Amino acid sequence: MAKGHRSQIKRSRNENNKDTRPSAKLSYARISVQKACYVLDVIRGKDVQSALGILTYNPRYASSVLKKLLESAIANAENNNGMNIENLYIAECYANKGPTMKRIQPRAQGRAYRIEKRTSHITIVLDER
After folding, report:
1. 116 in the Ramachandran plot: left (φ > 0), alpha (ψ -120 to 50) or beta?
2. How far is CA 60 from the centre of its chain?
């Protein structure tokens, strides 16, 4: 058995398994997971320069949100990890479901239809080649 309190054991174990790759996360983005994934699938595995070009000229709304997130991840890699921008590529990018805001649309004869405004948590992880 390991020595120490359970929280100390967990803390030491988590320090050893910590992911050191630069990343950026956007929580509660006002875009559905499905719409974000259309753009994420296009840039996954690409180097950051070509991914920025794709996001700049992609007409979808998600691309403008993801472009800012990718630029943040690049800045994190450069400033915090001292990595070279030319060698970076998108190792992981995914969108998880966030809370859904429920709204009401009034309809005829006193009825009310529900509108669901979906949110997502988007993560981009970079790595060096």
Report:
1. beta
2. 16
Q: Quote the CA–CA distance of 18 and 25 in Å, as a whole number.
A: 16
Measured distance CA(123)–CA(93) in Å, rounded: 6
pLDDT of residue 122: 97
CA distance to 44, 115, 128, per residue, from 47 (Å): 9, 38, 9
What CATH number does domain 32-97+114-129 carry, 2.40.50.140, 3.40.50.150, 3.90.470.10, 3.40.50.280? 3.90.470.10
The CA distances from residue 86 to 48, 78, 89, 107, 128, in Å, are: 8, 11, 9, 54, 9
List pLDDT tens digits, range 66-82. Answer: 999 999 999 999 998 88
- Exposed, middle or buried by CB within 10 Å (0-12, 13-18, 19+), for 13? exposed
Amino acid code (one letter) for 51:
A
pLDDT for 127 beyond 60: yes
